[in-house]
Design a protein that fits this description.
2 copies of one chain form a homodimer. Chain A has about 325 residues and is α/β, with parallel strands linked by helices. Chain A is built from 13 helices and 8 strands. In chain A, helix 1 crosses helix 2 and helix 10 packs across helix 11. The interface between A and B is large, with 106 and 106 residues. Chains A, B: It is found in: Cytoplasm.
Chain lengths: ~325, ~325
């Protein structure tokens, strides 16, 4: 161990990860790679070995992203009793079942048992903080920290406070995820699906429409995206892209000259009929089998992780 | 010049680029970097120096992408007379004004003057080939080759034949763009906006909705995308992403368990009201000024090109 190394701001801080499934285990790996002590709280039998296997694999990715992972697994432990687990925690990252009643009872227990300094985050992609905090004394303490899968790899964390959360706590939440090397973004209103999943849903409707109409195959549509919009959006988001798409006139030019045509297209797109009916489901499943059936899910996932790491690393080398 | 170099399949082939604006000049640079002879046909005064300036700048990007650009500019010439320009052409790439009447007359002239071997491509993003070919003897000869801006950089070319185009000509069109190092994808039905622009339009409606509702700022939404969906979609398209998002069950699991929730969200999203009205336009322009106003369009475009090149190059180093 290099003792001259500057201490990580989260060094030896204790984070309790509730739920040792894929999301929880991925968070655990990220926390460990940031020098934290990690306690997994999950009553499921055999959880220890499952989490350890996932964490060891994720460590390879984290190393490829430049994290030091020395002695990381020595800081990982398991505590099935929730109150004991959070008794001296600095942070809680919850990844339990997506049921409001379950989460409400959970947070009431956590609030009782955890120290006042402890920050509370839920990874939920669907249940807003205000619906989870109904049994808490101080509901404002609970904040959504919604990662993008897999959490140890993709930088985004959607930070969604509830209306009672203080500005100071929002800033502390953003600071926590920044200290982990993530890119936390504040969502200013509770809304179903937050931002990233709503965008994904909106584009996917058009994807299903185009394939169901026979305009393009599913695998070719994937290639359209990876060779155009994906590269563009890994570089600049939609607004900045149209700011530059407007030429010297920038976004004001776009909005005056190109937006009206887009609004006409919106009307047409809204009128289209798209459903996951049996025929559509069958068509999509067949096309995906045709396009990707020669490789296993594990092989495809490994190729994805490798490529995503390369893109993230290439960004670090580029002057932004 | 290294005489031992294997000759490019397009070496010394003649391509006529109609229209020397940004799209035409970008195509010209790509063609030159692939050892072709390029003739620009554009009656606009001063077009020569404009195109040369653009091409020289684009050559730096093409070099960064691994293209040899030796003596490229010596193969660039200008011919304002359309019939003369196409007389011995192997390929035509048209980038004229987006007006069906203009293009119809243009293609009638080109068909008369060009050799029978010549392939005809239009860069149009909006006017299907069948609407441009109304005055041609053999309308099936005209195919859309729609690039993604900037054409010399982003790999996608949407190849959109018209119903009269032969299978052999579709394959020859795909081969041409592949020989240029592009990723051509066949669009199987003529449809307004083809594929990439329809997807972009669908997602942008939700972007405008979220910002207009105060859920997130425009610049933060851009960051959400670049740090999550952009990286994902530069790696895998939407269908493959959900194939992997379904875990071991793959896309069939997604379609049975997650798609119903997405369809519910579609209904909610379709009911939302989004217009480019004056208040929305003002809000968006202000937010983009706040987010990006500290840099010029040119600075932002240069940063974009640099980042896109890094992403494309990182893909070449990754085993796919």
């Amino acid at each position: 161990m290099n003792t001259s190394k500057i201490k990580h701001p989260l060094d030896q801080k204790k984070v309790v990860v509730i739920g040792g499934g894929v999301i929880g285990a991925s968070w655990a790996a990220l926390f460990l790679a940031n020098d934290m002590r990690v306690v997994i709280n999950d009553p499921q039998p055999g959880i220890e070995s499952k989490v350890r296997v996932y964490v060891m694999r994720a460590m390879l990715a984290l190393q490829a992203l430049g994290h030091g992972v020395n002695a990381a697994l020595e800081r990982l432990s398991f505590e099935p009793d929730l109150a004991k687990a959070v008794a001296d925690a600095d942070f809680v990252q919850e990844n339990g079942p997506e049921r409001a009643d379950f989460k409400s009872a959970l947070w009431a227990t956590i609030e009782q048992a955890a120290p006042a300094r402890c920050l509370f985050f839920s990874s939920s992609s669907g249940i807003p903080a205000s619906n989870q905090a109904t049994q808490m004394q101080s509901p404002g303490r609970l904040v959504i920290g919604h990662p993008f899968n897999p959490p140890h790899l993709l930088p985004l964390v959607e930070v969604v406070p509830n209306p009672q959360t203080s500005r100071a706590l929002i800033e502390a939440s953003l600071d926590f995820y920044r200290a982990l090397g993530k890119c936390p973004l504040e969502i200013r209103k509770e809304i179903d699906g937050f931002v990233a999943n709503r965008l994904q849903s909106a584009i996917f409707r058009e994807c299903v429409y185009l394939v169901s109409q026979g305009v393009i195959t599913a695998a070719d549509l994937d290639s359209v995206v990876t060779h155009s919009l994906g590269i563009r959006w890994a570089t600049n988001g939609p607004f900045l892209s149209f700011h530059l798409g407007g030429g010297d006139g920038g976004f004001p030019h776009f909005v005056d000259h190109l937006a009206p045509g887009m609004e006409t297209r919106w009307r047409e797109q809204l009128e289209s009929t798209v459903h996951f009916d049996e025929a559509t489901k069958k068509l999509l499943v067949e096309q995906i089998e045709n396009g990707y059936g020669d490789r296993s899910i594990a092989q495809l996932a490994e190729a994805r992780d490798e490529r995503e790491i390369a893109i993230i690393n290439s960004g670090r080398k580029t002057a932004q």
